[in-house]
Design goal:
Helix 2 crosses helix 3. The longest helix has 14 residues. The chain is mostly helical. Strands 1-2 form a two-stranded antiparallel sheet. It has 4 helices and 2 strands; from the N terminus they run H-H-H-H-E-E. It is globular.
């Protein structure tokens, strides 16, 4: 990835385990280039490149594997890496890996800070529609939040 040179020592495993050294949700709240992770409009890979290469976080970045920093920008970067190496959009990857194999009619990967969704919120209190092979050992209640108008394509929860 051309944009991966900003922090060359950080691995995908570190991004996903919150140990990348990048500022998390708490530490990164004041970094202007991290704001893209909260916006509905935009591209995951473009946002990841912005986050990974910004000089505005340099004072807050620590060595990988030295500190746990929850969420935020590092997950955006991991999603951008997935898009870059696969050549597919995040939506395509989620569809291919989760939605289609598990025969899901609804699934969500929204940003819980900016839930701009047409059609409102629907709550499912049972998971009986989920094929048995895809159910976790103890199935929680599932929430469904459609992100597209009904009938256009798959929604989100």
């Amino acid at each position: 990835m051309a944009w991966g040179s900003g922090n060359p020592d950080i691995t995908v495993a570190q991004l996903l385990s919150n140990s990348s050294g990048l500022p998390g949700l708490i530490e990164g709240g004041e970094i202007p280039d991290y704001a893209c992770q909260f916006l509905v409009a935009g591209d995951i890979e473009d946002c990841a490149a912005t986050i990974f290469n910004t000089p505005h976080d340099d004072a807050g970045v620590v060595l990988p594997d030295t500190m746990f920093r929850y969420g935020g920008a590092q997950w955006q970067v991991a999603g951008g890496v997935a898009e870059a190496v696969s050549g597919k959009s995040w939506e395509q990857l989620v569809d291919e890996i989760y939605v289609e194999p598990c025969e899901l009619e609804i699934l969500g990967y929204n940003n819980h800070f900016t839930q701009f969704v047409p059609g409102g919120l629907t709550i499912r209190t049972t998971s009986t529609e989920i094929p048995a092979r895809c159910r976790p050992p103890r199935t929680p209640a599932w929430k469904a939040v459609p992100t597209r108008p009904p009938g256009t394509t798959r929604g989100c929860c």
